[in-house]
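Bug #77: duplicate submission created two jobs. Keeping one. Sequence:
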Amino acid sequence: MRRNRDGAPRASIKDVAERAGVSPQTVSRVANGYEHVRPEKREKVLAAMKELGYRPNRAARNLKSGRFRSIGFVTFNLSTFGNDRTLDAVAEASEKAGYTTTLLPLSNPAATDVAGAVGRLEEQAVDGIILIMSAEVGSLDELPVAAGLPVVIVDSDAHLPYTVVDSDQEQGARIAMQHLIDLGHRDIVHIAGPANSFSAQRRAETYRRIASEAGLVERPIRYGDWSAASGLAHGEQILREHPRPTAIFAGNDQMALGAMHAFHEHGLRIPGDFSVVGFDDAEGAATFWPALTTVHQNLDRVGHTAATLLLSLIEGEPDAHSRTLIPTRLVVRDSTGPASAVH
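Kept job's structure:
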């Protein structure tokens, strides 16, 4: 009898066959779920498996079938709200389809690191890969060569030659800006995410375009790092400006929270002195002081859609390099109000 890594004996098909009084071929057929096995023999085999603690070698079976029923998931920053929620949704959809999810976080968003991660996932026997391409990494020409696997990319440049799923970042930024404009705000500053982030780029570009089209006061875009600390730093800088803007459109809820903290510290009212809009509708946004008006991303749908599309590619559907944008919606709470006449 063979042994496990801990030295404990591990039953083989031959052991089960001897215990059940059947051929090894019959044990194999039962283990692989074939129906054409007489019920009495099946019961004997199952009982022997239980007695001996036998577990079928699914890895070997998968190698024969060419399927591992596993999805690889690569992301640069799992700590962000969007990436974390997307992973949860991918894992849930994968589990429902009978697949496991293998996570491979990266600390450095470089093309060589991405290609290396894809290669490592291929070695770990996955059937396809979901890649959260949340930042610029340079050329990805070698990615399909390195992988040889179906790939779906989330939060990415629209021009990459892959199937892409993302929130409609442009629509989200547009409804945020239009909400502030409808409240009479003509001087709106944007605290954006990192300059190399695809989602931050699209939100900033939309802010710039809407501000130009509406003839708003021209303000330079301020770049943060998605953290509340960077929002706090920019909020303090904004307070030193004269004249001050009347509204803040923050690239995510954490930076909005940081800016609000700065305003509170100086005794200013929200929304009386400043209106603030965030982006994400992260957990806790409704409990900020005041409750944060924000753009809700349907990240569950993003993750489920990415997983569904990848599973279709794994099943043999041709890759049309489609681009699916999931709509956002504005959640109006207490942090926005009419523009103040005095600033």
